[in-house]
Automatic annotation (TrEMBL):
PANTHER family: DIPHOSPHOINOSITOL POLYPHOSPHATE PHOSPHOHYDROLASE (PTHR12629), DIPHOSPHOINOSITOL-POLYPHOSPHATE DIPHOSPHATASE (PTHR12629:SF0). One of its GO terms (biological process) is diadenosine hexaphosphate catabolic process. It comes from Paracoccus seriniphilus. Pfam families: NUDIX (PF00293). Residues 16-146 form the Nudix hydrolase domain. CDD domains: NUDIX_DIPP2_like_Nudt4 (cd04666). Its cofactor is Mg(2+). The keyword Zinc-finger does not apply. The lineage of its organism: Bacteria, Pseudomonadati, Pseudomonadota, Alphaproteobacteria, Rhodobacterales. This is 8-oxo-dGTP pyrophosphatase MutT, NUDIX family. GO terms for cellular component: cytoplasm.
Amino acid sequence: MNAIRSSLRMLLGKRPPAMQVAAICLDRSSGKVLLISSRGTGRWVVPKGWPMAGRTLHGAAAQEAWEEAGIRGKIRATELGRYRYDKTQDVGFAFPVEVRVFLLEVEHVADDFPEVCQRRREWFFPGQAAELVDERGLQDILRALQGKTACFDAAARCNKDTHDGG
C-alpha cells in the first residue's frame, strides 16, 4: 500500500494541503473544552469540516460546532492555531489537510442537533483533552490553553475579537 501511495505522490506531484476549519469549544465557567467522537473510528476529535461558501472560516467552524456537537456561542475571528493531519479516504489512501483552529466560547449546549445520533461528546480540561486526541499539532494547541481561561475571560470583556458564528 505504501508503494501505491508513493507512486501516486510522484504522479500527482507535491501540492499544498487541503484546508479544514475547526472549533475548540471552551466552557469558560469550568475551563473545560469539548471533544466529540469521530464518526468513522470513534476517536476523540474537535468539531471540524470543510470551509463553506458564503461563510468566513471562523463562521464555518462555528457551524461545524453546531452540526457535530450542538454547540452555539461566540467564535473568535482570529485563529488559535493550525495543525496538520492525513485524512484517510474510504478507498485507502490519505491526503494532507491543514486545519485552522478557532476558539468558540460556549453559550448554549443543545440536546438535539444534526449529528446527535452519530457522535459522543464529553468535556475535558485542555491538558486532558490533549492526551486523548491523536494529532500532535492539536495536542499542542490544547496544551497551550491549559490554565489560560482567565486570559480569554479578559479578552471577552473587552469584546474586541469576538463575533457571532456567521
